[in-house]
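Lab notebook, bench 4. The sequencing result for the construct came back, and we need a structural model before the next group meeting so we can plan mutations. Quick request posted to the team channel:

Model the 3D structure of this chain.
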Amino acid sequence: MKRWKKGLAIALASVFVFSAIGCGSKEAGELNDGAASRAVGDHAGEIYIDDEAAALAGSFAEEDVALIQMAQAAVDATNAERAALGLSTLVVDPQLTEAAYVRAQEIVSVFSHTRPNGSDWWTVNSNVMYGENLAKNFNSAADVTAAWMASPTHRANIATADYVTIGIAIYRGTDGRLYWAQEFGY
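Done. Here's the predicted structure in token form:
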């Protein structure tokens, strides 16, 4: 059953990769204290793929269709910002999207680039995760992207020319807030 749900979620995400979707209302949100990134050589001999996180990544709910649409709108907005800077378009990577979904759920309890178990943010899947932007309480892709672009550290991740892949996920916490994770890869 879990494989079916995960497969459905990935299929839905793929469908929305090719469409531009509009988003909801404007409300002030919060960014974490900075963006996170690691160089290609950082921890090169260490491979982390958090098998326990797979359970989080496979737990999609009914609302996720709308959140996947909103995440795709954020991908589109991010790529529009990159185009304005003369940079290439980022391609959605299913592994980064899965890692972003894990991180979006984790930041509900610990809004930080450190995971709830104390490990580094990129240990969800060290094979693909090289940059991370987080946000909460933004209700549209346009607003969260504008906030990331207004923050020098978050903007730097979006404007890193060497990044070629992206994954964005949104999770609605029990507090009703939306938690955003934007992941980048080479």
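The two ends are 32 Å apart (CA to CA).
Will bring this to the meeting.
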